[in-house]
Amino acid sequence: MPHRILFVCLGNICRSPTAEAVTRAKAQVLRCDVQIDSAGTAGWHIGKPPYDPMQDAAAAKGYDMSNLRARQVTPADAHAFDLIIAMDDENLRDLKAMGLPARLFTDYALNSGVTYVPDPYYTRDFDGALALIEDCADGLLSTL
Ligand code: 4NP
User: Fold this and answer.
1) Is 11 a pocket residue for ligand 1 (Cβ < 6 Å)?
2) CA–CA separation, 42 vs 65, rounded Å?
3) Of 5, 16, 27, 108, which is least surrounded by CB within 10 A?
4) Residue nearest to atom 13 of ligand 1 (CA)
């Protein structure tokens, strides 16, 4: 059973920390024993908390992300996690180039016919990103 899960996006301040917080909260409700972390392929925001508008959207749905801090993915993550989950094809390509096998989060989507998690840093649709992440998290946890 994959119980150490790493979520990866580009900046680690919008999508992957949200996936981390949402999946952790849902796993707790299900009493599912998982260790969850998140990281970015880029190092621009290392040490920073999640982006305020993303935190606000998550907090409105009961997810507290305020204690999370961004970090950059490293090759050692290949050994530290059972499952590495990317938000889009660019993340997937960057991870593969580092030798990290990964899957797309949207592969687990239950109700959303989408092939990637659009980046709300650019789309500004923070509520939409959160809803998609909740759906993918439900699907992922149903496989564990
Ligand atoms: P994320 O979104 O990959 O979902 O964290 C981004 C956040 C910041 C930037 C790009 C994407 N940025 O260019 O600073």
Assistant:
1) yes
2) 20
3) 108
4) 11
Compute the C-alpha angle 110/112/114, nearest 5°.
120
Query: pTM of the predicted model, to two decimals?
Result: 0.97
Q: How many CB atoms are located within 10 Å of the residue 103 CB?
A: 14
Range of the domain at 100: 3-143
Question: Which pLDDT does position 2 carry in this prediction?
Answer: 58
From 90, 98, 55, select the one nearest 73 (Cα to Cα).
Answer: 98
* Nearest CA owner, ligand 1 atom 12: 11
Look up the CATH number of the domain holding residue 119: 3.40.50.2300
In one-letter notation, the amino acid at residue 111 is N
pLDDT per residue as tens digits for the range 13-60 = 999 999 999 999 999 999 999 999 999 999 999 999 999 999 999 999
How many domains, the chain? 1
Rounded to an integer, what distance in angstroms lies between the CA atom of residue 50 and that of residue 15?
A: 9
Q: Is the Cβ atom of 44 under 6 angstroms away from ligand 1?
A: yes
Tokens of 116: 């990637």
| Phi and psi torsions of 71, nearest 5° | -140, 165
The yes-or-no answer on residue 119 being catalytic is: yes
Choice among 9, 24, 37, 88 that is catalytic: 9
